[in-house]
Write a structure and sequence with these properties.
The chain is an alpha/beta fold. It is built from ten helices and eight strands. It has an eight-stranded mixed beta sheet, with helices on both faces.
């Protein structure tokens, strides 16, 4: 079995040497016990880094034929860098594993990925056993996100990020998805084929800073929802219908008071409350619709998801 690993990198000079060392050791042992073939490889994808990431990757390829490198022309984002590596190398291996460069994902689980692949699984998900290392806030927001995805009808694997194995057949299936606003962890379950999960404990980042601060995580979550569900649009319709029904009964009540009771009182508070309430609903609705229209606009332009500068 020829195995490939794809690792997107953005300003990862602080951790690359350690990542290389761990993967070299792992691959050596797996080649020795015939789990994988000698021509297996690891490819680092430089997503327009501003530090010495690419220079380090180049040095790896010169020192050891195990390593490959892809340099994107600019920063396209983690998901696009990942899909760049997967699509460029999908025909070069029997299966590809995607993982981050920060060593938070237990690389020993790769052995379990390979075992599951040999058992006939085309997709193997790396799933965290727990989130005990996360802060309470991050743990709560993550749980809320997965519950929200479930409510929106989005098929996803809880506590799974981008640590997974895809067979060549699954990669060819992934290649048929042409979304510009890419959310790979939502696309992969749509491919189908036989799949399973392998559980592991996630460690601390070895060095450097996280490339996903809260703001990026929020936009990433928004992409995940808007790319796979029209439930928000349906919610707008339901809310609008409910407000219409309530308004109809309020109008009937006002007319009843005016013509039969004669107790209507001209009030400022009720008018202002209704104006602000309806104004808020309308602005929120326009914003949600705008998100979908914006994605249609981006998709219609057909721009490339990535552009490769160098490949070694």
């Amino acid at each position: 079995m020829r195995l490939g690993i794809v690792i997107p990198c953005y300003n990862e000079e602080a951790v690359l040497y350690e990542t290389k060392k761990h993967i070299e050791t792992l691959f050596k042992s797996m080649i020795e016990d015939n789990s994988i073939s000698k021509d297996s490889f690891v490819c680092f994808v430089d997503d327009g880094s501003r530090d010495k990431t690419w220079e380090i990757i180049e040095s790896f390829t010169k020192d050891n034929p195990l390593f490959k490198g892809i340099k994107l022309s600019r920063n396209f984002g983690h998901q696009n860098a990942l899909i760049a590596g997967l699509m460029q190398l999908k025909d070069s291996a029997d299966a590809l594993i995607s993982m981050d460069a920060d060593l938070q994902d237990d690389i020993l689980v790769i052995k379990d990925f390979v075992k599951k692949y040999k058992e006939g699984y085309d997709v193997v998900y790396g799933v965290r056993e727990d989130r005990s290392r996360d802060t309470k806030f991050k743990r709560a927001t993550a749980e809320a996100f997965y519950k929200l995805q479930s409510f929106m009808g989005i098929e996803s694997i809880s506590n799974h990020a981008d640590y997974r194995l895809l067979s060549r057949k699954a990669l060819n299936g992934l290649a048929q998805f042409k979304e510009i606003n890419l959310f790979i962890r939502g696309v992969v379950p749509l491919i189908g084929f036989r799949s399973c999960s392998v559980y592991y404990k996630r460690g601390e980042r070895f060095a450097g800073e996280s490339k996903y601060p809260l703001s990026k995580m929020l936009f990433f979550a928004l992409d995940g929802i808007a790319s796979f569900s029209i439930v928000p649009l349906r919610i707008i319709t339901v809310v609008g219908f409910i407000i219409f029904i309530l308004s109809f009964f309020i109008i009937l009540w006002i007319m009843f008071e005016k013509f039969f009771l004669g107790t209507t009182i001209k009030g400022w508070s009720s008018v202002m409350i209704s104006i602000y309430f309806m104004g808020g609903i309308q602005v929120m609705s326009i914003g949600i619709i705008g998100e979908y229209i914006g994605r249609i606009f981006q998709q219609s332009k057909g721009r490339p998801r990535y552009i490769i500068d160098k490949e070694i």
